[in-house]
Amino acid sequence: MTGEATRGLEFDPIEQARTQWVESGWADAAAGMAAVTSLMRAHQIVLARVEATLKPLGVTFARYEVLMLLWFSKRGSLPMKIIGSRLQVHPTSVTNAVDRLEDAGLVTRSTHPEDRRAYLVALTSTGRELAERATKALNTEVFEQPGLSGRDLRTLVDVLTRLRRSAGDF
Questions:
Q1: Residue 44: which domain range?
Q2: Tens of pLDDT along 123-133?
Q3: The last residue of a domain, from among 34, 57, 80
Q4: Cβ-count burial 48-71 (b if 16+ within 10 Å, e if not)
Q5: Cα separation of 82 and 29, whole Å?
Q6: Degrees, nearest 5: CA angle 70-147-161
Q7: How far apart are CA 58 and CA 101, in angstroms?
Q8: Is residue 52 domain-shared with residue 66, that is, in the same domain?
Q9: Is 95 found in the same domain as 28?
Q10: How far apart are CA 131 and CA 106, in angstroms?
Q11: Using only C-alpha atoms, what is the Rg of the chain?
């Protein structure tokens, strides 16, 4: 990446786009466009920080989420269907993540003892150790320093919760 791409701009391109939306006769959509575009850019920024933190540990955020879901489960294992439901992702995404985690020796997969059509995914001791190291790194490098005040964080979570609820997320 060149220095130009990593240096901040001298203006806010999203605010400029909002102004151009208004000037183009789309004033009713301008605030929504700015909000959605800001959310998408914030996602890129946060995901880049998270992935940079996890990369040295050899795990993506999607796989980390699976590890932590298993880590928090009472038995250290869950059916694949439950993993997909809790993470709100397509079964193919769960299969892909579990395949990679299994190849790395971080989880095991076996036939569910009560439903032979289902698979049970279990955290290995190596997976548990990696989940703990990754959580420590994310807490230190990302979650404890998100770039917002405590009050702003509460407001952001409240607003995003309302957005998610209105979209039928829960």
A1: 11-57
A2: 999 999 999 99
A3: 57
A4: ebbeebbeeeebeebbbbbbbbbb
A5: 38
A6: 55
A7: 10
A8: no
A9: no
A10: 9
A11: 20
Q: What backbone phi and psi angles, to 5 degrees, belong to 17?
A: -65, -40
Q: Got the DSSP string for 63-91?
A: HHHHHHHHHHSSSSEEEHHHHHHHHT--H
pLDDT of residue 3: 44
User: Are 83 and 24 members of one domain?
Assistant: no
User: Are residues 28 and 74 part of one domain?
Assistant: no
Query: What is the 3-state composition of the chain as percent helix, strand, coil, each rounded to the nearest 5?
Result: 70, 10, 25
* Tens-place pLDDT, residues 102-125: 999 999 999 988 888 889 999 999
Number of structural domains in the chain: 2
Q: At what angle do helices 27-54 and 125-138 cross, to 10 degrees?
A: 130
Contact 88, 69 (CB under 8 A): no
Kindly state whether residue 3 falls inside one of the protein's structural domains.
no
**Structure tokens, 52:** 């940079």
47, with CB counted inside 10 A (0-12, 13-18, 19+), is exposed
Average pLDDT, the chain: 94
Report if residue 108 sits inside a domain: yes
Which residue bears the tokens 């997976």? 127
